[in-house]
């Protein structure tokens, strides 16, 4: 039996930490699919039209996540990966039932391949 891959998300108190592999300058915006790095960490794949200059791609990623999660943009923070395609984001205020809803959505996106 193959061991389960680590998830692209984790919980930190009432917040969710989300690992995203971003492809900027794409023909269309999309979220879905997973990617595993050399260390075995799992990342959610996302594509945005914005180019990777002056934070445009990062802003587009946050806007896309906010729209798809139906979550306030101000509650999605870029924690690391400002100039890297591998990003770690914090989704704040997702305690209780809200957290379960967010996790269910994120899990369906990661499973898309």
UniProtKB/TrEMBL annotation:
It comes from the Bacteria. SUPFAM superfamilies: YggU-like. Belongs to the UPF0235 family. This is UPF0235 protein Q4610_05710. It comes from Sphingobium cyanobacteriorum.
């Amino acid at each position: 039996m193959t061991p389960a891959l680590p998830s692209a998300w984790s919980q930190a108190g009432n917040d969710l930490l989300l690992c995203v592999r971003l492809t900027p300058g794409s023909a269309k915006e999309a979220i879905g699919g997973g990617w595993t790095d050399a260390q075995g960490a799992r990342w959610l794949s996302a594509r945005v039209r914005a180019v990777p200059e002056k934070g445009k791609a990062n802003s587009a990623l946050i806007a896309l996540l906010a729209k798809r999660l139906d979550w306030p943009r101000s509650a999605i923070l870029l924690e690391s990966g400002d100039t890297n395609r591998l990003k770690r984001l914090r989704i704040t205020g997702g305690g209780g039932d809200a957290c379960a809803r967010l996790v269910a959505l994120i899990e369906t996106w990661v499973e898309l391949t």
